[in-house]
């Protein structure tokens, strides 16, 4: 019997160049299948996972943004990024492939506190 | 307190894998309980029974095995991560038509559901990344 523990997954890795982004997504989807509430926070280089019009064909990789589009089907809708991170890479919400909730960097601590378990990729 | 550990790091390219082992050992010495160790990503490589580190280096595989034996630990290796890295139990070796299984004794291949369960039932889940 699985308790419904809430999970925050902090994504700090770029979408390609390591297997972290893909592994993180697999964990998120699995936990959601077990009806555990999952929130995702993208920080630092992790923000690059969310950019639209990715073209990783040259790397023989699957499009990460296409996999992210599965998130709503798994009821994963709490997706957070910080305004500061978005600004620091010179992008706006229009450059992102999926809808996100913008928070202040200061709010990360309370996001961590609100969740029973925190995983980092 | 009930802990679970997630080990991402390769046993030889990063310190983190051995830190996870020492952390686990320390938890048990302090009287805590370990529900499960989950090996994910390159972390699965430690479960390859064929690894043969130089004799003057720590053998992390046998360290985990002896700790698991003493404390009856549940060492679960992510099946998807393991199979693509060539860490196979008998079933998977047969399924993919490979000559030999090489999953080390004391480890078990299973799915991410085992990680979800570990998160659900543990008081603390500690990630050993890289």
Oligomer: heterodimer
**Major sheet attributes of chain A:** 5 strands, parallel
Overall shape of chain A: it is globular
Spatial order of strands in the largest sheet of chain B: 4-3-2-1-5
Q: What distance separates the N and C termini of chain B? A: 26 Å
Q: What percentage of amino acids of chain A are in beta strands?
A: 15-25%
Molecular structure report:
The complex is a heterodimer of chains A (121) and B (130). Chain A is α/β, with parallel strands linked by helices and 121 residues long. Chain A has helices at residues 20-33, 64-68, 83-88, 108-114, and strands at residues 7-11, 38-42, 78-82, 101-103, 117-120. In chain A, helix 3 (83-88) links the parallel strand 3 (78-82) and strand 4 (101-103). The model of chain A has no long low-confidence stretch (mean pLDDT 93). By secondary structure, chain B is of the alpha/beta class. Chain B has one domain: Hypothetical Protein Ychn, Chain: A. In chain B, strands 4-3-2-1-5 form a five-stranded parallel β-sheet, sandwiched between helices. The A-B interface holds A 2-5, 7, 19-20, 23, 26-27, 30-31, 33-34, 36, 117-121 and B 6, 8, 40-41, 80-81, 111-113, 115-117, 119-122, 125, 127, 129.
Gist?
The complex is a heterodimer of chains A (121) and B (130). Chain A is α/β, with parallel strands linked by helices and 121 residues long.
Write the layout of secondary structure elements.
The complex is a heterodimer of chains A (121) and B (130).
Chain A: E1 7-11, H1 20-33, E2 38-42, H2 64-68, E3 78-82, H3 83-88, E4 101-103, H4 108-114, E5 117-120
Parallel strand pairs in A: 1-2, 1-5, 2-3, 3-4
Chain B: E1 2-7, H1 16-29, E2 33-39, H2 60-71, E3 75-78, H3 79-84, H4 90-95, E4 107-110, H5 113-121, E5 124-128
Parallel strand pairs in B: 1-2, 1-5, 2-3, 3-4
Helix pairs in contact in B: 1-2
């Amino acid at each position: 019997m699985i308790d419904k523990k809430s999970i925050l997954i902090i994504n700090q890795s770029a979408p390609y160049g390591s297997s972290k982004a893909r592994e993180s997504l697999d964990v998120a989807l699995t936990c959601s299948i077990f009806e555990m509430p999952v929130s995702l926070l993208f920080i630092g280089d992790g923000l690059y996972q969310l950019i639209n019009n990715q073209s990783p064909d040259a790397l023989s990789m699957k499009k990460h943004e296409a996999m992210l589009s599965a998130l709503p089907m798994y009821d994963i809708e709490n997706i957070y990024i910080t305004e500061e991170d978005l600004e620091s890479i010179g992008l706006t919400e229009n450059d992102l492939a999926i809808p996100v909730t913008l928070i202040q960097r200061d709010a990360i601590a309370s996001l961590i506190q609100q969740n029973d378990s925190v995983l980092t990729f | 307190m009930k802990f679970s550990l997630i080990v991402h790091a390769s046993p030889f390219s990063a310190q983190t894998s051995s830190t996870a082992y020492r952390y686990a050992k320390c938890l048990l010495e302090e009287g805590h309980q370990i529900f499960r160790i989950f090996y994910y990503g390159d972390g699965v490589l430690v479960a390859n029974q064929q690894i043969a580190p130089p004799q003057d280096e720590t053998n992390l595989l046998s360290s985990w095995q002896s700790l698991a034996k003493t404390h009856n630990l549940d060492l679960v290796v992510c099946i998807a991560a393991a199979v693509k890295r060539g860490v196979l139990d008998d079933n998977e070796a047969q399924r993919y038509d490979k000559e030999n299984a090489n999953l080390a004794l004391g480890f078990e291949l299973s799915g991410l559901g085992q990680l979800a369960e570990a998160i659900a039932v543990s008081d603390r889940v500690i990630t050993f990344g890289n």
